[in-house]
Amino acid sequence: MPREISLSDVKDLVGTEIGVSSWITVDQTMIDTFADATDDHQFIHVDPARAEAESPFGGTIAHGFLTLSLLSTMNYDCLPVIREQTMGLNYGLDHIRFGSPVRTGKRIRGHFKLTEARFRGAGMLMTTYDVNIEIEDEKKPALTATWTTIVQFDPKDRPEDA
């Protein structure tokens, strides 16, 4: 996949996996920082000794919302930039499922399949992706979701066939 595409290229990519991100290691420092930012200090996230002794996970695990929040990093890492884009916005997420916990020290990466792209108004393109976050060496994904974003662009750049 090229690192940059045009608005007119997007329609031909619908139905294909257009990006797989690099691996991200989810370590205890990342989990602790997220716990501080969200004030979610549940022991299964921040207390390795207690999590090993009292949880079924064998140690600490990442917050599900931490895993979800890493979609933005994964997106920037692997999805092509739309040349005409002036701004991108999150529109929403549907059908979010946390399939498997991300244990501390594991590596994860995102897979992005473009399922829909439709122009709205003069200067907006709505894109919908089926996303999943894979955990290295595990069968079940950490997360699956449907993610809709808005690409804004100057109306003069709208493809004629759109």
From TrEMBL:
Organism: Endobacterium cereale
Gene3D superfamilies, alphabetized: Hotdog Thioesterase
Name of the featured protein: Nodulation protein N
Domain MaoC-like: 13-120
InterPro entries: HotDog_dom_sf, MaoC-like_dom, NodN-like
